[in-house]
Amino acid sequence: MPKPYPPEVRRRALDLVASGRSVAQVAASLGMSESCLHGWRTQQLIEAGVAPRSAKAVESAALRAAEARIVELENEVRILRKAAAAVEQVVPPKVRFALAAELAAEGVPVKQACLILGVSRSGFYDAKNRPPSARAIRQAWLTDQITAVFEAPRQTYGAPRVRAELVLGQGLVVSRKTVAVLMRRAGLAGLPLRRAAKKVPSSVTVSDLVARDFHRDGPNELWVTDITEHPTREGKVFCCVVLDVFSRRVVGWAIDSRARAELATSALGMAIESRSSGDGQIPGGIIHADHGTQFTSWTFTERAHRAGLLPSLGTVGDAYDNAVAEAFWGRMQTELLNRQRWNTRVELANAIFEYIEGFCNRRRRHSALHWQTPLQFETATHQPTANS
């Protein structure tokens, strides 16, 4: 069988024809058949779109495309069979029956779906017609309860707090693992809290009365305070809170458009009025803060001294020395501030107020309080507090 002409020979021969010489002249000068040169010329015109393709050429192209598609599908089938063999090892038949039902609903024949997923058709139809088990009914009911609990507290709870609400709030018996599995199946997920700790070289201070020991056995023994800020389209909003570390309750707060000493003093004044017995005194209590100018100002320290509080300042630039307040800001940032864009200062201030008084103190369950809310924890310890 003679070898085909190189592409360069073909191109040059067609150039000679294009220059005005006849096919017979070019074929004679090159010593090739006229039919060969005619074929090249016809193919050139077809590729250029000048001449239409013959039915045979179209059929040949369609056949080649079909053969290529068949090869592609065969490869996909091999891959699917390998994947199905691996799936059989880790996915239980009940789940594969559900997948087969989904494929059947999409128009895939049940026979093919069952073959690929490695289950029998008889088993598929048996599972389809079988009534739901008691366990499936309970899980469906639990999923409804979990969804209601999840949606109630701003859709922020993860599995541990959802379970705490089910067990402590509704008296149900359910494990944390079951709650986590059902939440995952329902597409429910709590908001993650990921705050990187600031690593700043610490410096020694003589006014730190806490030394990172935030455990207290009663209310009003240790308060912590701090200020945060958040932007709106009108400008920033500043918020200062005072928390009782015993119950993690926000006992005082203040919101303003500027972070002045009056902001911290107002929050401290609210805490003193709400927690004192009427004489405006919190004897022996500690108010712990960082070295912000608001907390080192004369007005703030003088207000603390008048109430019998001992001011305490953590190490400069060390978030761990005021960890309880920093953790509170982290939660509020995740559960409220970063969830939307705020238009006005009033809008954000109202949202912060509702978050503190309506959610954190009364409804949010804390792991440090054995999954109780601050108000529940204070009531359970039989410690009377003013304005509770």
From TrEMBL:
Gene3D superfamilies: Homeodomain-like, Ribonuclease H-like superfamily/Ribonuclease H
PANTHER family (UniProt xref): TRANSPOSASE INSF FOR INSERTION SEQUENCE IS3B-RELATED, TRANSPOSASE INSO FOR INSERTION SEQUENCE ELEMENT IS911B-RELATED
Signal peptide location: none
Residue ranges of coiled coil: 56-90
Single GO MF annotation: DNA binding
Purpose: Involved in the transposition of the insertion sequence.
Highest taxon of the lineage: Bacteria
Organism per entry: Pseudofrankia inefficax (strain DSM 45817 / CECT 9037 / DDB 130130 / EuI1c)
GO biological process, one term: DNA transposition
InterPro entries assigned: Homeodomain-like_sf, HTH-like_dom, Integrase_cat-core, RNaseH-like_sf, RNaseH_sf, Transpos_IS3, Transposase_8, Transposase_IS3/IS150/IS904
Pfam assignment, any one: HTH_Tnp_1
Residue ranges constituting the Integrase catalytic domain according to the UniProt record: 215-382
Record keywords, A-Z: Coiled coil
PROSITE patterns: INTEGRASE
Protein name listed in UniProt: Integrase catalytic region
